[in-house]
Amino acid sequence: MSQLLKALHTSALAIIMTASFAQAELSDADKDQIAGKSGLRVFTSDGAFVGVTNGLFFFRDDRMRLFVLNKVGSSFRPISDDLNVTTYTDKVTLNGTDLILDESKQRFRNAIPPKFFRDDDGPRDVVLLSRR
After folding, report:
1. 25 or 39: whose pLDDT is higher?
2. Structural domain boundaries of the chain?
């Protein structure tokens, strides 16, 4: 019985840490640390690997744009090679050198616009600006 209680306690702590982790906002120190950086890995809140940043910048104080290159292992590589992701800073968490987007894999996939032309090699603009 004590092993079951210990497992439940560990699970509850993991859920609480994940929930609070996913809701965190980038601090000013975090913004200064990552502004313009390349090579940061980007994940969705449910752990799907999106890609690696090729730069990012902040605008209008509460918004940021990530230029993401889909690398091998990305859950979104068949959809597009490059993504320009625009979102709010309170929807992104910095975990070490990784960025966690406060969107699930499916919500992120639904935000990627369809590609109409096969010869269109430009990046796709993904806008995640809903305040839910």
Report:
1. 39
2. 2-128
- Angstrom distance (rounded) from CA 37 to CA 35: 6
Exposed (0-12), middle (13-18) or buried (19+): which is 73, by Cβ within 10 Å?
A: exposed
Query: pLDDT tens for residues 94-129?
Result: 999 999 999 999 999 889 887 776 656 678 889 998
First to last CA, the chain: 40
| The three-state (H, E, C) secondary structure of 57-86, written as one string | EEECCCEEEEEEECCCCCCCCCCCCEEEEE
Following CA atoms 17, 21, 22, 23 in sequence, which dihedral angle do they give, to the nearest 10 degrees? 110
Pairing of strands 82-88, 98-101: unpaired
DSSP H helices in the chain: 2-22, 28-34, 105-111
pLDDT per residue over 53-92, tens digit each?
999 999 887 899 999 998 878 887 776 678 999 999 999 9
- Kind and range of the H or E run holding 127: strand 124-128
